[in-house]
Amino acid sequence: MATLDSLSLFTGLGLSEHKARETLKNTALSAQLREAATQAQQTLGSTIDKATGTLLYGLASRLRDPRRLSFLVSYIANRKIHTETQLSAALEYVRSHPLDPINTTDFEQKCGVGVMVTPEQIEEAVEAAINRHRSKLLVERYHFNMGLLMGEARAALKWADGKMIKHEVDMQVLHLLGPKTETDLEKKPKVAKVRPEETAGRSAKDVVENGEAVGQTLSLMEQLRGEALKFHKPGENYKTPGYVTTPHTMDLLKQHLEITGGQVRTRFPPEPNGILHIGHAKAINFNFGYAKANNGVCFLRFDDTNPEKEEAKFFTAICDMVAWLGYTPYKVTYASDYFDQLYAWAVELIHRGQAYVCHQRGEELKGHNPLPSPWRDRPTEESLLLFEAMRKGKFAEGEATLRMKLIMEDGKMDPVAYRVKYTPHHRTGDTWCIYPTYDYTHCLCDSIEHITHSLCTKEFQARRSSYFWLCNALDVYCPVQWEYGRLNLHYAVVSKRKILQLVAAGAVRDWDDPRLFTLTALRRRGFPPEAINNFCARVGVTVAQTTMEPHLLEACVRDVLNDTAPRAMAVLESLQVVITNFPAAKSLDIQVPNFPADETKGFHQVPFGPIVFIERTDFKEEPEPGYKRLAWGQPVGLRHTGYIIELQHVVKGPSGCVESLEVTCRRADAGEKPKAFIHWVSQPLKCEIRLYERLFQHKNPEDPAEVPGGFLSDLNPASLQVVEAALVDCSVALAKPFDKFQFERLGYFSVDPDSYQGQLVFNRTVTLKEDPGKV
């Protein structure tokens, strides 16, 4: 009788009979929904309309803290919370404010209580969005991405009704463009893609648009704008090849659009168990870039389901690197945020006969054709009791798992959804001793966050069927998973395990050693984030795995630093030069342009005195043919001074080594122009300079065919050269870590964090020109 009463109550909220019966199978959910409905009826004194019922169901299914149920029900019943957007904000608020009492004034402000969005405001917001894109709208007409207009209007009016915004957009666009013509109904022509190998020989600034070269870099966001990749539009998931639909799909997509307003949503979901590398840069650019290009949002979600390997430093480093690359997450979330919901869904999955508790050991599940589980058909009630026992810590690690009943593309049968682990979690402590797997967590977290495009690297293609299956098995919104090829580099290893081996062997200092291709290492070496983003844009997004040469990344670095790194002068291996007829009684102040090609960017001042230091390689007593620098009878100019020096005397030590030179000087405009101008320093600062080369000698150090002894046997002994007594001009005296300079004639350099007061340390980022031997 109680079941019939609850069924009647739930259908009265607007749930279908099937949905109501499925809800009744979930004891915790049905109890919370029953309580919410009862309280709402007491407040209303009448039946509950469908809109209110939908909100109550959303509240009951998503609320983690039952103490807040009455508080939130009163707001829904009194129509103070009347949209899904407000409910989501309210749930987020109570989650992030677990302590009593709740500040109702702050709560209502954060949840839009009392905010009335008038039709006039919606009309004005849509009109403003259309005006911003009017010229493009008139050209592209109905091929224009209308989601952009809705997203901008929604951003301006956070609490507006999504349906009203869409209706207003449709009306104003129709008024502007008129009815659709036959041309409008034609499919938009594809934009020709340029293969990475076809662009490899070009400057990073040379790109192709509509078949013609243009003179500025197209960012990855610009490449992804519109329909270039033919991704589905939000809410049209079912149009994607291979997408699995159910009788509930269209209703779920309709609810999804009401929540998101047709906004593109992506996510970057790293595991917090290592440092991001160059391959992750592509993923960051793709996920954040695609969302931004289409006026959407991107979540940064930590996949923190493996507490044994997670460390706080990795969370911080990942956030830092995302920000360093220039991206701001819409929200930072964690898989652990959803542990309660994930557990409830696992129980529901058992109720539906789609999961079971298994006692096969890990070694029994390995290999291509493991034996089917003898517990696959155990009774539902038995699995429910055993899963609860797992939850309460009654099984040792490895003694029991929860498995899902499906076969994946690669033939893997019944993937594990939950396993027992007695490692405290960095956020939840020892609340849980069972943790969900990636196969179980990934799609459900995407569903909770209403991700529209779940962008994954190619190796996750084998999990696509489980992705669709699990969402559909639980009757929840199902996003679309899209796969793309990984980005790798030659002469590099990026796996966490192998980098740890390099650190243990003393081959590198740590994760941020500038010879590695982790993002922290590239930053320390001095690679600008813009250059990494440009490199990702240049590589593009392909389905096939891409392995690029490091010199292509270095070319992007040079392009950026040439325009952004001010010039200075430094000497690596110094030779003292005494000017015997120095033209002044004291040092002269020389104005040196920060960027010789554009003097509007300013100057810096360096002293020029009777004693200067030059590179030892810029002098030869017995020069070979073609040598153009200082030698007997061959004067050279000193850059920026307007003076030419000519050798008069060579001073040698007891061993015959040249210790210093004596020269005379004359004005550069007072005679024949020299064959060369060299850099120099006077009254310099001493500094340490670290010169880096490739860490490995072979292109593929992990390939046994190329390196039979393993990657540790392929280390380049000359990958690091430290110049401890280098000299640099005093214009850099106040430089801070990560400041970048071009040392004239030497290369681009960045200040290392090892620097301290009175002792600067520089890393060579790249040479001025590409080494032909590296191609």
Automatic annotation (TrEMBL):
Biological source species: Camelus dromedarius (Dromedary)
Which SUPFAM superfamilies is this protein grouped with?
Nucleotidylyl transferase, Ribosomal protein L25-like
* Top EC class of this enzyme: ligase
The EC designation for this entry is 6.1.1.18
Cellular compartments annotated: Cytoplasm, Cytosol
Note the InterPro entries from the entry. Answer: aa-tRNA-synth_I_CS, Gln-tRNA-synth, Gln-tRNA-synth_Ib_RNA-bd_2, Gln-tRNA-synth_Ib_RNA-bd_N, Gln-tRNA-synth_Ib_RNA-bd_N_1, Gln-tRNA-synth_Ib_RNA-bd_N_2, Gln/Glu-tRNA_Ligase, Glu/Gln-tRNA-synth
Its protein name is Glutamine--tRNA ligase
The record places domain Glutaminyl-tRNA synthetase class Ib non-specific RNA-binding at 7-162, 165-254
Q: What GO molecular functions are on record for this protein? A: ATP binding; glutamine-tRNA ligase activity; protein kinase binding; protein kinase inhibitor activity
Domain tRNA synthetases class I (E and Q) anti-codon binding, chain residue ranges per copy: 677-752
Which key words tag this protein in UniProt? Acetylation, Aminoacyl-tRNA synthetase, ATP-binding, Cytoplasm, Ligase, Nucleotide-binding, Phosphoprotein, Protein biosynthesis
Phylogenetic placement of the source organism? Eukaryota, Metazoa, Chordata, Craniata, Vertebrata
One GO biological process term: negative regulation of apoptotic signaling pathway
Which reaction is this enzyme known to catalyze? tRNA(Gln) + L-glutamine + ATP = L-glutaminyl-tRNA(Gln) + AMP + diphosphate
Q: Where is the Glutamyl/glutaminyl-tRNA synthetase class Ib catalytic domain?
A: 263-562
